[in-house]
Write a structure and sequence with these properties.
The structure is a homodimer of 478-residue chains. Chain A has 14 helices and 23 strands. With 478 residues, chain A is of the alpha+beta class. In chain A, α2 crosses α6.
């Protein structure tokens, strides 16, 4: 790390090769390392610290809304996975199978959980007896495995970290409300913590979760115009509960079946952070999840008192933000580049002349704007500047999305836009699977979501010309 | 939960059947549920909340001492597991093997990690180049799998949650210091947070970790006199580093091999908490990890103002402790029994007469001692009483251990004590494996540890009569 001779190597430019730019950042910002296991990542300290901050923010929101954490097994017996037929059909092709324990062959093979609806239902079938046991509002933080063929760090890996909430309710109405509440929490978190604007909406039947009645999503647009499904919230009705024979005695003393939801967000959002905010100098981290919010770099640190002053500020500023100091013998230029690469939102420079004037320079990572700040004002200025970086990132992302969102009312236009301009295409849809498949085949776009905020762009389906039911966002996705 | 008619059922008494008493508590305090997967547990909200508090306390200690969290894959390719021969010999019989991904047979099978030395070494071989990259002080919170035949909740399960620290150092001396530092952190945590007294010592070669040069342990005695190995810290020398070809350029510009440690603590300690502190009324939780530290129970809650006063206290006391209020329509007697079962350290009772006198009653879970406290004094009295419960639990556990620790200087005595009195036996040992095995065969005891605090009980080995090297604690263990 602190090798004096080490240079901060340039990364591939975004415009030149976005995929390579992404890979360069993941590696050079030391977020993760490839492992000896195909498609599995090592989350290194800096990458994992981002995830810890994400966990802290989300976990607090889950607990505030009455959810409790639990831990379920990582294995699912094959017979359990098969209980809900749409679910097994969706997941069977991509699960890892344990067939041996020690030297013995198992009588029933176990899959490593790709998601845990079946395990939660199995548990719920034992603990839900009465309406007094409802709602059950459980969440777990864990990793899951999906045997993906092509993988990319954070975006698609064989094993990934996530949280999965699984809840059971007395009525369908309550369960639907829960699904919406959690989607709202995700949207709030994406926008107000990660500075990533999202579109809230519903997935089409083709794109919904295996076994769900309805899947809701928050969709974000990356810098290159592609979509990232950032978190989902599913309403299951009573399908799983029936398959698992979960019943409770209701207020009327009769037996009823409860209604279920699940919702999840994964380390995939770290890929979203990189691709929404990053630039040609490296990572740009939204301040509220940045492991280091401010780095102090003494300028001309060998001059009398400079390093001491920087250390004094370091001790003082720990009370208001996550702060680091770099007093190594690397050059100042190297340090500037290094912490830009790591996406640290604010840099504090202090040198001999600054000290004379009882001031320092604060530099924003997002736009490199410099502010000269009186040392007595740091406790006021730093939180304001962190907020400003957050706002700056959010507005930039909104602007990117707006500039790359198009409208199409016929297939010719839609196909041309899809071919020439990466981004979202808003177009009307009749609701037929055939048209959805035609758009995929002819224009290479999939439905991202049916947004809650509907617009009446036209009266007819962009594909077949029949009366339109909904406006849909179409695009290419990660 | 809140079913009015539900009674708090009695649990089996400890003296009658300790194993059944343990199982009853795990179930009735709602710590965990058996799952549909053999030997795997569901950690329910109350059990998981204990683990979250354990994590919070330990994680803070790890970070204070410079450790960083990471996340490594859950799979280990067979060839990687085989790189260190003692390690594979120790773990191969108890790992779960993944042989298929989706519908395809894997070209190399993967085991689900039983521990992650091999994965950390694989990663370290890529990131350690120079002495400037050392030390590496990594930890991860995850679950591991060991294909155990006989399982018991918390104490021995196929999958369990733990943390595993894995560190690399420039010199053997530094690595040894790290091993000792972490053992010290575990001992401090066990005693000052969990109120469980421990003996710090070294494991014999027979009992040490597969692949380690030395294993250090903190051993606790349960209420029934059996030992629980509560956490371990291993020194590996450079064995793994050599097997994985990890080399760094040193201060002398020559290539060197680094020195390694690992250390871990698991959900097993929750079993230790139950068996150290529990009693015939249920769980007794040490205050500093109790999910609920104080429960407020309004007495005659239907009388004017009582419930309101209790609610007011509830809002107020959230600032100083983890507090719950039970205003359900269950009877007061039921509530008392329920929160005793759940091991809540303090109960606050408030009724009409208390209100008249501006006071309430605080009842300790550990000894049922009641204190009448002026309502204005709660912020002072509650922390003091929580501390007193902690101290009371710790002293009781020390007393139990002292009363069940024996000394033997010959085999006849040792065998008789082992047969008649459950507990620790202190006896001298020559250091030979043959004697260790003889004690196991003849007296049914294993070496628990070679304590750092040595006593010269005799000059000769309790078994063979040859000159003794060390005093060892012997006993039966979980």
């Amino acid at each position: 790390m602190a090798d004096q001779k080490k240079m901060v190597e340039a990364i591939t430019s975004m415009e030149e090769d976005f995929a390579q730019w992404y890979t360069d950042i993941v590696k050079k910002a030391e977020l993760c390392d490839y492992s000896g296991v195909r498609g599995c990542m090592v989350l290194m300290p800096y990458g994992y610290a981002i995830w810890e901050n994400i966990q802290k923010e989300l976990d607090a929101r889950f607990k505030e809304t009455g959810h409790e954490n639990v831990s379920l097994p990582m294995f699912i017996p094959e017979s359990l996975l098969q209980k809900e037929k749409d679910h097994i059909a969706g997941f069977a092709p991509e699960v890892a199978w344990v067939t041996h324990g020690g030297s013995e062959k198992l009588t029933e093979r176990l899959c490593v959980r790709p998601t845990s609806e079946t395990l939660f239902c199995d548990h719920y079938s034992r603990v839900i007896k009465s309406y007094r046991d409802l709602p059950k509002l459980y969440n777990q933080w864990c990793s899951v495995v999906r045997w993906e063929k092509t993988t990319r760090p954070f975006l698609r890996s064989v094993e990934f970290l996530w949280q999965e909430g699984h809840t059971m309710h007395e009525t369908a109405e309550e369960a639907v409300q829960e699904t919406e509440r959690m989607l709202g929490i995700y949207a709030d978190f994406m926008e107000n913590i990660l500075a990533i604007p999202v579109i809230k909406g519903q997935k089409t039947d083709k794109e919904k979760f295996a076994g769900a009645e309805a899947t809701y999503t928050v969709e974000a647009m990356m810098h290159d115009g592609k979509a990232l499904q950032s978190a989902t919230s599913h309403y299951f009705g009573d399908g799983f509960a029936r398959a698992f024979d979960i019943q409770f005695s209701g207020r009327d003393n009769k037996l009823h079946t409860p209604f279920e939801t699940s919702w999840g967000l994964s380390t995939r959002v770290i890929g979203g952070i990189i691709m929404t905010h990053g630039d040609d100098n490296g990572l740009v981290l939204p301040p509220y999840i940045a492991p280091i919010q401010l780095v102090i770099i003494p300028v001309a640190g060998h001059k009398p008192g400079v390093t001491e002053k920087a250390q004094e500020l370091y001790a003082r500023l720990q009370k208001i933000c996550r702060v680091k100091i770099d007093t190594s013998d690397n050059s100042t230029g190297w340090k500037f580049a290094e912490y830009e690469m790591k996406g640290v939102p604010l840099r504090l420079e202090i040198g001999p002349r600054d000290m004379e004037n009882n001031q320092c320079v604060l530099v924003r990572r997002d736009n490199r704007e410099k502010t000269v700040v009186d040392l007595d004002q740091l406790e006021v200025q730093i939180p304001m500047l962190l907020r400003a970086v957050h706002e700056g990132l959010y507005q930039k992302a909104v602007k990117n999305r707006e500039s790359k969102t198009y409208t199409a009312t016929n297939m010719a236009d839609l196909t041309q836009i899809a071919a020439e301009k990466p981004g979202f295409i808003k177009a009307m849809w009749c609701g037929d699977l055939a048209c959805e498949e035609a758009l995929k085949e002819k224009a290479g776009v999939s439905s991202r979501c049916i947004p809650f905020d509907q617009e009446q762009i036209a009266d007819t389906c962009v594909c077949c010309g029949k009366p339109a039911k909904q406006m849909v966002y179409w695009g290419k996705s990660y």
